[in-house]
Structures are given as structure tokens and as C-alpha cells.
Amino acid sequence: MPTLPAELLNLIVVFQPLFTKPTWEYAQTLLLGALLQRGKRTVTACLRVVGLCNEKHFQNYHRVLNHAKWNLLQASKILLALIIVLVPGAILIGADDTIERRRGRKIKGVGCYRDPVASSHKRVVKCFGLKWLSLMVLVRLPWSRRVWALPFLTVLYGKPR
Description:
It is a single chain. By secondary structure, the protein is α+β, with helices and mostly antiparallel strands. It has two domains: 6-70, no CATH class; 73-157, no CATH class. Helices cover 33% and strands 25% of the residues. It has five helices and four strands. The chain has helices spanning 6-12, 21-36, 43-49, 59-66, 72-86, and strands at 92-101, 111-114, 126-140, 147-157. Strands 1, 2, 3 and 4 form a four-stranded antiparallel β-sheet that branches. Helix 2 (21-36) packs across helix 3. It is globular, with a radius of gyration of 19 Å. The mean pLDDT is 86.
């Protein structure tokens, strides 16, 4: 595994208790790859950028995201606490929802939602897909003129049954 810079390691070490030791090693590599990767941040692209494109057991890195047991809510609390400590000034929380268009019998969580982009006051357009809700801290960074959104939690929105 590539070694992480001390500055980055000091920031992310607070997440270590959420993972088992092997999963933590894979998660660190994926994080480094996500930081270095330009464009789409797929698991394969993250491994490629850190020089692990010929890794024999690449499926272990995929398992961090789809099989490993770790608490997303606890991780988002830690991330929010880090953002609050590192970002100066008042904290403003924003929320956004988006629809990922998906169809099929085997996809869980698919619903029929109003498409806010294609709809108007006179015409309602509905589409099938997964609805994601993201919570973020809105901050104005010193080197930028615009407000930045720092997401700390994204969850799949499910309609109550």
C-alpha cells in the first residue's frame, strides 16, 4: 500500500475505529486514489492512479464499498465534526436531492418521482429512479468567489411503506 502523507493521515485517523484492520488499509488506498484521480472516481480508476492497476485481489477494494461493515452515520458525524473544526466562521447546512434514473426489477429502492428539471408549472414529468438526499456544509473559501458545498452525508431516500 502507498504511504499517506502525515498531514492527511492525521486528518483521517479519526475514521480508523469504524473499520477492521484489513478494511482500513483498503479504505486508505481508495481515499488516496480518490484524491489523486482526475475525472471519474471509480474504484478501478483510484487503483490505477496509485499504481495498483495489476493488483491480483482488486475485488477486496470493491468490497470496502459494497460488503464491508462500517457505520455510515457514524462516519458522517465524524466528517461533519472535522468540517466544523477546519472551516472558520458560521456554519450553514444545505440539502439537495437528485434522481438517479434507474429501471428494472432487481434494483431496490426504485420509485416514481417528479422530475424537477423537465417539469414546469403547467406540465409534470415523472421518472423512475433512485432518489438521493445529500446534506452539506456551505462555506466561502478564501481563494474562491463562490460558495462551496462540502457534503458530509448522502443517503438513499426511500418512500415510507
